[in-house]
Structures are given as C-alpha cells and as structure tokens.
C-alpha cells in the first residue's frame, strides 16, 4: 500500500483555557517578533519587517486586506503577516543533502509544521520513476522533462495548470498566456475553493465579481456586518479599520456560529493603551447563527426591512430588476421557517434590520469562507446583495459589498486571466496581442481537474505555488488522482505534502519569494499585486535570495514556455520576461483599466481599477441590478449527526502550519481537535479531551478521520468545527456548491464516536 497522504497523527499536549474576548495587543507584537527573529534572524528579519507594506517595499504575502491610501506607520503589518514573512525569509535552506537524507516515506511521516521549519527549497529536484528519494536536476533538464511530457500528450487538455494566489500579476499573466498558447483553459486555482461563490453571486447580482467598497467607505459607514469571517486571525489589519469605524459611530454586527475574539474587541498594537491590554469593544450585536443559517437570516432581515418601510423605492425603480418576484417571496416566507433555519429569534433579526435602516442606511457587509464554502453559497451571497439593493446600499459612499479575499494576490490573478472560463472579450484581446489563436472551450476548475486526473484523462499536473494535495477536499481521493499522473511538478518556495504525493515522476522547481530581490539582466525587477479592494500596487523584494539557484516565477514560466512551445506569433518569451515593464505593456493592451500601467504602478499607493458597480453601472445580463429569488434552504443533517465546518487556527496560513496554538480560542499545543457544544458532548457521554473518530456521510459513501480530541466550546448545538487540512479527508469530492463548484468545506455531515483505545 502507498503511504498515507493525510497529515500524520501525532501525540499532542492539549491545553485549553478560556477563549479571549479581544484580539492583538502586546501578545501579538511579542509573537510577531519571536517568529521573525527565530526563523529569519535579527538582521534579515528586521530588514524584512521594515520593508513590509511600505511604499517601495514589498507587499505582504499573507492576506489581501488593503494598505491605507495615505500615510503609513513604520509597522504596517500584523502578527500573521510577520509569521508569513518569517516563514519565507528563513535562512535555512534544503537541497540535495536534505533530500538524500530523507526518503519520501520518511517525509510523509513528518508533520506539516515540521516541513515548514526545514527551510527554503534551494535547488531544482527530480523524483525519478520508482525512486524513493528526490535528486538534484539542472534547470535545463527540468524544463526538458516537463516539455517532453507535455508534448507527448494526445491533447493539451490532458494537462492541469494550477495556481495559488501568491503569484504576482506579471507571473500570472505570463503563465496563463503560456497555458493558453499551449492550447488549454485548464487553469484550476485556489480561488475555486475560496471566493468563487462570491464572484459568481456578485457578477449575477451587480455585474462585477469583486467587492464595491474601498477603505474610505468604512469610515463613513453607519452599519458594518461581518459575516462568516474571523478577521482577528485571517485579516488582522482589518481590525484597525473596524475599530476606527466603530470609533466614528458605526455599529458592527457579527454573524458567526463561534464567538471570535477579533470581532468582540481590539487592542491597538501601535498605541500604548492597546499594548497595555486596553481594548475597544467592536461588535455591538453578535448573532451566533447556525452553520449555513445565513441565507434564512438575511431573508429574515429583508422581510423585516420591508415591514419597517425602509425600502429605497427610488433606487429600485431606477436600478433594480425583478423586485416584485422577490417581494412576494418575502411575503410567502414564514418567520417560523426563518427562525428554525437560522436559529436566530425574530426579535433579534428585527432589531438588526432596524439598526440597518437608521440614518442614511450606509451599510457595508463583509464576508469570507463562512459563507462561500456551502452548497447554497451563491444563493446566500445573492441574498445579501438583495438586502443591499433593498436599501440602495451599493454604489454610494459608506455603503457596499465587501468579500474579504484570502491570498494576497488572488484577486489580481483572476484579473490577469487565471480562470478556467475567462470571457471571450479577454480571450479576443489576448489572441490579438499574442498573434495566435486562443482556445475558447472552458477548462477544468479544481474539482473537475481532480476528477479528470482520477479518471486518468489528465496526465500532467503543474502547479504555480500552493499545496494542492492538502488544500483540496477528499485527501485520499485527490492523492490517488495525483499518483495516477505521469508527471507532477510544483513551483514552490517551501517543502509541502504535495511534493510527497508524486505522479510517476515529480519535479520541485524552487522560486524566489516576494520578499527577495528579483534581479533581471537589466537590473532589479518589481512586480505588482491587486488587493481585495481593487488597488494595484508595486512590490519590490529587498532581501538577498535564499539560494543562488532560485529563479523568479516569471523566468520559470518563460523558460518552460520556450522549451514547450518556442517563440510563436508575437510572443518572445524570454524577451517579455527580462523586463517586467514589457509584460505590463502587454497586460495594458489586454486587460481594461491598466492604462499607463508602468507609470501608475510606480506611484506610491498604486492605483484603483475601475469598478462599474461602484458607479451604479450594472454589467449584468439585464443591465440592471438583479434581485435573486432562490428558494430558501439550509443544510440539514440526519438526527444524531452534526454539521462540521473546517477552519483555520491562529497559527497557520492555509496548509502552512507555523505553530500548534490557537491563542484566541484558548487552545495550545494541539491541532487535532474538534470543537463541540458542551451540551452535545454531555449527551454523547464524551468527556472534554476524550478522543473521538469523525465519520462523514454523503451519498457516495462514508469517510473516516480518527483520533480528534473533543473540546467543549460556545457554539450552536449540533455544529462541530475542526482545523483544515487535518479534516479535509472528510470533505466529499462530489459535494460542491451550486454554480461555483466550490468544495463545501463548511457543511460536512458527520457522526462522532469514541475512539478505540
Ligand atoms: N493568518 C492567516 N491569514 C489568512 C489565512 C490563513 O490561513 N492564516 N488564509 C487566507 C485565505 S486564503 C482566506 S480565504 C482567508 C480566510 O478567512 P476566514 O474566512 O476568516 O477563514 P476561516 O478560518 O475559514 O473562517 C471561517 C469563519 O467563518 C465561520 N463560519 C463557518 N461556517 C459558517 C456559517 O455557516 N455561517 C457563518 N456566518 N459563519 C460561519 C467560522 O466560525 C469562522 O469564524 O484568510 C486569509 N488570511
Ligand atoms: N477543508 C478546507 N479546505 C480548504 C479551505 C478551508 O477553509 N477548508 N480553504 C480553501 C482556500 S480559501 C484556499 S485559498 C486554498 C489554499 O490552497 P493553496 O493556495 O494551494 O495552499 P497554500 O497553503 O496557500 O499554499 C502553500 C504553499 O505555497 C507555496 N508558496 C508560498 N509562497 C509562494 C510563492 O511566492 N511562490 C510560489 N510559487 N509558491 C509559494 C509554498 O510551497 C507553500 O507550501 O485551500 C482551500 N482548502
Ligand atoms: Mo482562500
């Protein structure tokens, strides 16, 4: 039997204390410095931190929350940004000696946290067919291997080209050009598992698949909703924006099954009071909604707004489409159904609606994975858009929709064409610029790519960043799919489990990180990224590269494209990659909104991309802002079972595990745990800390993950939470969201049993 692809089960020393009621403050500052100095050293670490998110410095590789437009403080970063930089800026490297000392099987038995601690990948490595160890390989040989395998395919559609959201605009643009010139649109990406549902919903409702607010809007908002999001851990810099807005009188309403510390209070790390632990209360209302109860909740809010007479008839008359159908649906929906599905009482819903109906109804709604990773995610997000349309709360100051993006350039990668179904407008422009035909048939998204590899229809898997084998659902199935490939190839900065789940042959191509100097033949090169609010900014690495063998992602793509396709049409791969200004000229010619790209990207603070919905221009199928009228539903499980959501601890960035603590939730030294409602635990007859096995149930069968410690936690009855990626083995590959096809990582039906001793 092949070794297991799941993270190993290790003995842990769990300690549980009371969850915190506020986030950041001195503990976050101490933790940041500890991480950075211990991994990167004092000199390299301080240099990195002083250049992080500064004009002329580099963009934080952690989340996509924007930097302030105006003046920036010396420390424009957060604890988790510091951890991301520490992990990338590590002085330790791993190359031929390391891989000679550790077989694949040995490395598979190590934890993800151990993998991250080993250091930066230092040279290209090849795993030959049947080999037990990776061996060094030259760059030329590596490119020749990939080219050989790609050219041997019967069709370009037999290859999958994955992207994670750290690639710069320049690398992403060149990469999709290469993939399309090769002849396929098989461009699955991390966004398929992330905000795809938001993009699909917003495009259908308001005509743009991105958010419609900027940071300034937060300071004018009267009400801010934060739904299905844990900003204290995942977007810590958002807390200072929220605190400032609350200080100016905005009401913050949190909607989350768990009481997250970052939503209840904030201690500013750059102010003395904050460092001393004086915190500002944030959310004035906290609705502990049932998992997947948000659709019902927002329908209830809409019903209450209509009853209050808070509807902006003038806005709807001018801009809205299909309001009448929606309004009759609201009348038909009973309060009983709304209360049952959301588990929030009617009077609380009405109170929230009256808060939103105050003043000029300047409402912002923010959300993240708590909404996007459910079967009805698109319908839920469209219901939020409905509420905004009722209030006319889109396209005016202080009001709008705000999906909070994950990876630092995931939004930019999409703008650059990393999508399996880019619109013809984009493909036409690309074809014109490149002087070659571009395939039009849609490619595979992430789940379709896994299925195609599992059926052996796709035979080569190539990844620009990420950790596909651990980020995707159904770990065992996905591992089988990858192992069936002829070649798997990862462009990466750090060792991860995907490198250890090889096809017949496997390659690791090590690249520069964003913090490092990207020296080209004509001098240091700068790249650019787009944040969650559509601002495009430059990023210039400042640290010396971890190893002299490293290439930039852009050079890797260019050299690979040269080996696979050669110069073709107007494309001269190496020439384009030598000087990123040339690439930016191409981007400008293909993607709207990038005029004078080279000039504007060099301005401190960068530039905003156009956003038609913000101007109340609706690029939808009807040319109006569309109300949606989906039937109300929520995820239901059989009696005795639980709804499991998978989430992030405070010490991880997706599949990169920095440490074993989840400080704000009061957890230390453990990751293999499952949070449960205390009454449910008692009913199961399971004591806190006891070991349980989790079995997920879906129409295609059962999946089991063993030995999680059960933890009592303040959360709705019959819900459960466990960390990603340990729980991914339970997510069925066949259970995906309607329309967006996002794996439903937040609604998994499970049963819980005591583990055998
Ligand atoms: N430090 C750090 N920063 C990160 C990341 C990281 O791993 N570490 N990841 C980055 C990425 S790629 C992303 S996409 C973002 C993710 O940012 P988040 O979306 O904040 O991440 P999750 O941990 O998945 O948190 C989901 C939240 O939704 C809640 N939730 C779950 N189900 C429901 C539901 O049905 N309804 C409601 N209302 N709430 C629900 C959970 O309790 C939890 O608070 O963060 C980005 N930033
Ligand atoms: N169960 C469950 N599954 C989930 C989620 C969930 O909430 N629950 N969340 C989903 C979400 S929102 C996302 S975005 C995906 C994330 O999926 P991915 O983006 O695939 O995963 P990451 O863990 O972010 O990728 C980490 C790896 O990227 C590489 N890397 C880091 N920096 C760079 C760089 O600059 N260049 C290159 N080339 N490589 C780099 C490193 O080798 C590192 O090991 O996971 C999804 N999976
Ligand atoms: Mo994400």
Describe the fold and architecture:
The chain is of the alpha/beta class. Among the domains are: 15-20 and 642-754, Barwin-like endoglucanases, CATH 2.40.40; 41-193 and 410-608, Rossmann fold. Helix content is 35%, strand content 17%. The chain is built from 31 helices and 33 strands. The strands form ten sheets. A six-stranded mixed β-sheet has the order 6-5-18-17-16-7, with helices on both faces. Strands 25-32-29-31-30-33 form a six-stranded mixed beta barrel. Strands 12-9-8-14-15 form a five-stranded parallel β-sheet, sandwiched between helices. Strand 21 and strand 22 form a beta hairpin. The longest helix has 15 residues, at 26-40. It binds ligand MGD (2 copies) and molybdenum atom (MO). One ligand MGD binds next to helix 25 and strand 17.
Compact description:
This protein is an alpha/beta fold.
Distance between the termini: 24 Å
What's the Cα radius of gyration?
25 Å
Residue share in helix: 25-40%
How confident is the prediction overall: mean pLDDT? 95
At the first level of CATH, the class of the domain at 41-193 and 410-608 is: Alpha Beta
Number of strands: 33
Q: Give the overall form.
A: globular
* Ions, cofactors and other bound molecules: ligand MGD, molybdenum atom
Strand content: 15-25%
Question: Could you say what the CATH topology of the domain at 41-193 and 410-608 is called?
Answer: Rossmann fold
- Spatial arrangement of strands, main beta sheet: 6-5-18-17-16-7
Number of helices: 31
Q: Sheet with the most strands?
A: 6 strands, mixed
Assigned CATH architecture of the domain at 41-193 and 410-608: 3-Layer(aba) Sandwich
């Amino acid at each position: 039997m092949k070794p297991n692809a799941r993270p190993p089960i290790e003995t842990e020393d769990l300690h549980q204390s009371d969850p915190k009621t506020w986030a950041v403050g001195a503990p976050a500052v101490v933790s940041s410095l500890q991480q950075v100095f211990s991994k990167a050293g004092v000199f390299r670490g301080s240099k990195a931190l002083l250049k992080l998110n500064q004009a002329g410095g580099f963009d934080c590789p952690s989340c996509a929350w924007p930097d302030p437009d105006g003046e920036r403080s010396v420390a424009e970063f957060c604890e988790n940004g510091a951890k991301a930089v520490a992990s990338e800026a590590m002085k330790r490297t791993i190359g031929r000696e390391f891989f000679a000392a550790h077989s694949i099987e040995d490395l598979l038995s190590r934890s993800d946290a151990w993998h991250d601690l080993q250091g930066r990948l230092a040279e290209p490595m090849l795993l030959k067919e049947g080999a037990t160890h990776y061996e060094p390989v030259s760059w030329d040989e590596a490119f020749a291997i990939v080219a050989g395998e790609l050219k041997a395919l019967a069709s370009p559609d037999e290859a999958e080209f994955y992207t994670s959201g750290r690639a710069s605009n320049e690398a992403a643009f060149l990469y999709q050009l290469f993939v399309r010139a090769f002849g396929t649109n098989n461009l699955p990406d991390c966004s398929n598992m992330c905000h795809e549902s938001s993009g699909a919903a917003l495009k259908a409702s308001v005509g743009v698949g991105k958010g419609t607010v900027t940071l300034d809007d937060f300071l004018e908002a009267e009400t801010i909703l934060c739904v299905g999001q844990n900003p204290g851990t995942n977007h810590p810099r958002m807390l200072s924006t929220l605190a400032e807005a609350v200080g100016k009188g905005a009401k913050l309403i949190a909607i989350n099954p768990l009481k997250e510390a970052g939503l209840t209070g904030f201690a500013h790390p750059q102010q003395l009071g904050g460092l001393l632990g004086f915190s500002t209360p944030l959310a004035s209302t906290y609705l502990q909604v049932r998992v997947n109860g948000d659709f019902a909740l927002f329908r209830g809010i809409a019903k209450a707004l209509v009853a209050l007479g808070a509807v902006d008839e003038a806005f709807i008359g001018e801009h809205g489409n299909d309001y009448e159908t929606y309004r009759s649906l609201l009348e038909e929906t009973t309060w009983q159904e709304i209360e049952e599905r959301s588990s929030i009482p009617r009077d609380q819903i009405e109170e929230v609606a009256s808060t939103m109906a105050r003043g000029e109804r300047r409402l912002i709604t923010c959300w993240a994975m708590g909404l996007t990773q459910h079967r009805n995610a698109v319908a839920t997000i469209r219901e939020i858009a409905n509420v905004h349309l009722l209030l006319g709360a889109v396209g005016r100051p202080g009001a709008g929709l705000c999906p909070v993006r994950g990876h630092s350039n995931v939004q930019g990668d999409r703008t650059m064409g990393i999508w399996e179904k880019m619109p013809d407008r984009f493909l036409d422009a690309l074809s014109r610029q490149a002087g070659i035909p571009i395939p039009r048939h849609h490619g595979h998204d992430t789940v379709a790519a896994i299925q195609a590899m599992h059926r052996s229809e796709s035979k080569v898997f190539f990844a620009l960043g990420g950790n596909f084998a651990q980020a995707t659902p159904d770990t065992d199935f996905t591992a089988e799919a990858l192992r069936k490939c002829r070649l798997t190839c990862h462009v990466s900065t750090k060792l991860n489990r995907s490198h250890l789940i090889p096809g017949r042959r496997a390659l690791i191509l090590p690249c520069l990180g964003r913090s490092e100097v990207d020296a080209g033949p004509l001098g240091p090169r700068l790249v650019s990224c787009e944040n969650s609010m559509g601002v495009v900014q430059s990023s210039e690495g400042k640290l010396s590269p971890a190893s002299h063998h490293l290439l930039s992602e852009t050079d890797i793509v260019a050299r690979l494209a040269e080996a696979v396709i050669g110069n073709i049409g107007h494309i001269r791969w190496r020439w384009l990659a030598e000087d990123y200004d040339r690439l930016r000229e191409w981007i400008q010619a293909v993607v709207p909104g990038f005029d004078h790209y080279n000039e504007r990207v060099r301005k401190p603070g960068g530039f905003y991309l156009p956003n038609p919905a913000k101007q109340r221009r609706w690029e939808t199928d009807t040319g109006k802002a569309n109300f949606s009228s989906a039937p109300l539903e929520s995820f239901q499980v059989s009696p005795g079972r639980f709804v499991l959501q998978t989430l992030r601890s405070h010490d991880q960035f997706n599949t990169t595990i920095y440490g074993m603590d989840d400080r704000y939730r009061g957890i230390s030294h453990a990751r293999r745990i499952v949070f449960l409602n205390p009454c449910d635990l008692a009913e199961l007859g399971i004591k806190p800390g006891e070991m349980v096995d989790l079995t997920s149930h879906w129409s295609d069968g059962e999946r089991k993950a063993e030995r999680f410690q059960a933890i009592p936690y303040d959360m709705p009855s019959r819900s459960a939470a466990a960390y990603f990626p340990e729980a991914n083995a339970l997510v069925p590959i066949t259970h995906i969201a309607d329309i967006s096809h996002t794996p439903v990582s937040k609604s998994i039906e499970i049963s819980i049993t005591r583990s055998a001793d």
